[in-house]
Amino acid sequence: MRLRIIFCLFFMLFIAESHAAITVVGNLAQQAVMLPGETHEGIITLRNLGSTPSEVRVYQTDYTFTSDGKSSYSAAGEAPRSNAGWIFIQPNRLTVAPGSTAPIYYTIKAPDDQELIGTFWSIVMVEEIAETSPESSKRSKSVGINAVMRYGVQLITEIGESGTSSLQFLDRQYIISEDGTKTFQLDIENNGEKWYIPDLWIEAYDSAGNSVEHFEGAKRRIFPGCSVRHLIDITTLPAGKYKFLVIVDTGDENVYGAEYDLEL
Q1: Where are the beta strands (DSSP E) in the chain?
Q2: Which residues contact 72 (CB under 8 A, 6 or more apart)?
Q3: Whole-angstrom Cα distance, residue 241 to residue 207?
Q4: For the segment 42-73, what is each residue's pLDDT rounded down to a tens digit?
Q5: In 3D, which of 191, 195, 194 has the Cα closest to residue 167?
Q6: Which of 77, 116, 122, 241 counts the highest number of beta carbons within 10 A?
Q7: Who contacts 66 (Cβ-Cβ below 8 Å, separation ≥6)?
Q8: What is the pTM of this model?
Q9: What digits encode the pLDDT tens for the residues 103-145?
């Protein structure tokens, strides 16, 4: 069993002027490659950067997203590929002394089900409790300005090397901004069983079939059942007719491609 730190997810919910002090040490996502029936243990470390003790509550949610920018933080265990029910977290509430660190321990117990395949994930939310909150043991009754800092630490479980790969090209648009920026917008969906952070690039060919430009897209993580939107700046292309060859490389044996005709 091996552990890889992959990507980070950071949420900040500002109620007002900030006095929050809690932060998560290190990256905000942890991945474990496991087999059915195996157990993995990990730690989320918190640090209090402030000068007073900070109360924190810890809870789980699921997380899915779509290319139109919508994100869903549903109840833990509701998403089809949630691993929230496999995870035990301790403690669920703690106080971190000023200038100190404190651990949150978690254990992932993969079900002993040989039919499990692909990627499963959920989020551990770490939320500082405002002094004016009814949850706070300090029970401040003063009317003031507070902030709630919420970090989402993603716990990703891969069942060995199992799972099928399948990416689908969805909608695409050509957009010209008021400042003259030209953007090729492309939505991609993961309808397979594994997650990826694929490489994406475009080869642009003119009407004579000559390669005229190469564009690199940003690396975007795509979980099964989720979709992402790529915005690729093509401002350097002059007016004309082009054929775009879009390549998406998942890093394994699978490479996906699509062709689009575009007139600027």
Answers
A1: 2-4, 10-13, 22-24, 29-34, 39-48, 54-61, 64-65, 71-72, 87-90, 93-96, 101-109, 118-128, 148-159, 167-176, 182-190, 199-206, 211-216, 227-233, 241-249, 255-263
A2: 62, 63, 64, 65
A3: 6
A4: 999 999 999 999 999 999 999 999 999 999 99
A5: 191
A6: 122
A7: 226, 227
A8: 0.83
A9: 999 999 999 999 999 999 999 999 999 765 556 555 555 545 5
Tell me the two tokens of residue 131: 């002094």
The rounded distance, in Å, linking the Cα atoms of 128 and 136 is 10
Residue entry with tokens 């695409």: 172
Residue 75 class from Cβ within 10 Å (0-12 exposed, 13-18 middle, 19+ buried)? exposed
β-pairing, 148-159 vs 29-34, is parallel
